[in-house]
Design a protein that fits this description.
CATH superfamily of the largest domain: Trypsin-like serine proteases
Shape: globular
Strand order of the largest sheet: 1-2-3-6-5-4
Distance between the termini: 116 Å
Structural class: alpha+beta
CATH topology of the largest domain: Thrombin, subunit H
Number of helices: 12
Number of strands: 22
Radius of gyration: 31 Å
Largest sheet: 6 strands, antiparallel, barrel
């Protein structure tokens, strides 16, 4: 009797357990999936993309260019006079790229300069497929950055900027862009290297973030994001040989450039007020620098009242580094300085009286009033106003002395000449168009 009761109790317990199991199985099959399960699939990357995507736009830049097609009689002026339409035709092509909204109230968008260069019409398309016409507020070919503006009826989302100075090699990054016209394509990778220099054509771009996230034509101008969805770089596809690697302009550098573009529409080259000279082996011996030490350029002169003068730099100092980047030549000095803007606070390394020291200074723009003295020192040219007698003699209405243009920049008078010199003082040479009698000559003079 006791055994039978125990058996009945056991059967009841087994039946109850089986019923619970079947209930759970049915619920799993028939009931909708708990939102918590889906939430586990929303990784940090997914969240970052959801956060950033609305502030990423597609950019379509239409460029009209006039070119001369190949023609059997292209060298014959007779045919050119009678059939001009065959010798010059207008072509239209479209450049695709990406951009980042940095101010959703004012409609400011950052992209690459090469995406919108020479554009006659620029269209911006948001994630909501709303199309805007854009105009260029400022552009800087040297850094490959441009700022666009669109007119808004409502505020658009904007991207929060991160800090590219604390990026770590191996850190996860996300790229969003418009490669090959495929809108809002996402790629992920890691930071492969920092402070990379890349040569594209005759130009060297410095201080890039290198990543293994795929960045192709169309990604240019789009964001490189941290895992938190913060903007830490502007992607660029200027390196045509890149396979499996991508490059981005650090956002801290981009912020400085954008600030200048919004302020003045262009970025002037920073000026320290230094006259430099290459170091020979004999000069290294004279100043006590090891011959094997490759760094260093000699400070030949310090301009009175310039930034270097106020920072205490002296003639005879050897300039070794700028912001920890080694200076091996005068061209290195120019290239490194091009990474910064007037007003940035810089630390330079010097060699003076047998030991190395570091000095802080703040570059400015080249003072226009110093232009004539600069040209006299560098080129041996003394420039003045053109008299009315000389204008009548040569049949000209503008120019300074015999000068008409500097680096393709028209020079109407002495003030325009000073402005041209102020803008191009950092180059290794200046090209002058000189009028002599009835003839014009193009002269390139080293600075």
């Amino acid at each position: 009797m006791v055994f039978s009761d125990m058996r009945i109790d056991c059967i009841k317990k087994t039946s109850n357990t089986l019923a619970v199991f079947i209930g759970i199985l049915v619920a799993a099959v028939l009931c909708p999936v708990d939102e918590g399960w889906g939430h586990e699939r929303r990784s940090e990357v997914v969240i970052a993309i959801e956060k950033a995507s609305p502030a990423v736009v597609n950019i379509s830049a239409i460029v009209h260019e006039r070119a001369s097609p190949r023609f059997p009689f292209s060298g014959n002026d007779f045919f050119k006079d009678f059939f001009p339409e065959f010798f010059s035709r207008e072509y239209q092509h479209t450049s695709l790229g990406s951009g980042v909204i940095i101010d959703g109230k004012k409609g400011y968008i950052v992209t690459n300069y090469h995406v919108v260069a020479k554009a006659t019409e620029i269209k911006v398309i948001t994630t909501e497929q709303i199309e805007y016409k854009a105009r260029i507020l400022g552009a800087d070919p040297r850094s490959d950055l441009a700022v666009l503006r669109i007119d808004l009826d409502t505020e658009l989302p904007e991207l929060a900027m991160g800090n590219s100075d604390n990026m770590m090699i191996g850190e996860t990054v996300i790229a969003i862009g418009n490669p090959f016209g495929l809108s809002h394509t996402v790629t992920t990778g890691v930071v492969s290297a920092l402070r990379r220099s890349v040569r594209s054509g005759e130009r060297v771009y410095r201080n890039f973030i290198q990543t293994d996230a795929s960045i192709n034509p169309g990604n240019s101008g789009g964001p490189l994001l941290t895992i938190e969805g913060e903007l830490i770089g502007i992607n660029t596809a200027i390196y045509q040989k890149a396979q499996g690697i991508g490059f981005a302009i650090p956002i801290n550098k981009a912020k400085r450039i954008v600030k200048e573009l919004l302020r003045a529409g262009e970025v002037r080259f920073p000026w320290l007020g230094l006259e430099l000279q290459e170091l020979t082996a004999e000069l290294r011996d004279h100043f006590g620098l090891p011959r094997k030490e490759g760094r260093g350029v000699l400070i030949r002169e310090v301009v009175q009242e310039g930034p270097a003068f106020h920072a205490g730099l002296k003639r005879g100092d050897v300039l070794l580094t700028i912001e920890k980047m080694p200076v091996f030549s005068i061209q290195d000095f120019r290239n490194i300085l091009a990474e910064f803007t007037p007003g940035d606070r810089l630390k330079v390394g010097l060699f003076r009286k047998g030991r190395e020291r570091h000095v802080g200074l703040q570059p400015t723009t080249f003072p226009v009033e110093s232009a004539l003295g600069f040209v006299d020192r560098r080129l041996g040219l003394q420039v003045g106003k053109v008299s009315e007698k000389v204008k009548r003699k040569y049949g000209i209405n503008n120019g300074v002395m015999v000068l008409k243009k500097v680096n393709n920049m028209p020079v109407k008078n002495l003030d325009a000449f000073k402005e041209a010199v102020s803008q191009y003082h950092h180059l290794s040479s200046l090209t002058l168009l000189v009028r002599r009698g009835n003839y014009g000559y193009s002269l390139t003079l080293p600075l």
